[in-house]
Design a protein that fits this description.
- Keywords: Kinase, Transferase.
- The protein is 14% helix and 12% strand.
- The protein is α+β, with helices and mostly antiparallel strands.
- A two-stranded antiparallel ribbon has the order 1-2.
- It starts with 6 loop residues before the first helix and ends in an 18-residue tail after the last strand.
Length: 80
């Protein structure tokens, strides 16, 4: 992933990697090394990541359209 990738490009690539075909607007990314888990925003979110041992990491988070209710999606897979 290029460091100048947009937020939408990063989310789309993460969803594709896990074979999740869902609405991009339901997901957001956070810096894995930031204890506040603030949403990464802006034109180039990867440029603002915290580095630990020279590496960056992000979490892909789900944003429920209705915060009063929720559901769990289970995707089959094989660890291997």
């Amino acid at each position: 992933m290029q460091r100048n990738a947009s937020k939408e490009q990063v989310i789309a690539a993460a969803l594709r990697a896990f074979h999740v075909y869902d609405d991009l607007r339901l997901y957001y990314i956070t810096d894995a090394y930031d204890s506040n888990e603030k949403e990464l925003d802006g034109p180039f979110p990867l440029q603002n990541l915290t580095r630990k041992d020279g590496r960056t990491a992000i979490f892909l988070r789900f944003r429920s359209p209705d915060p009063e209710s929720g559901y769990i999606k289970v995707y089959p897979g094989k660890l291997g």
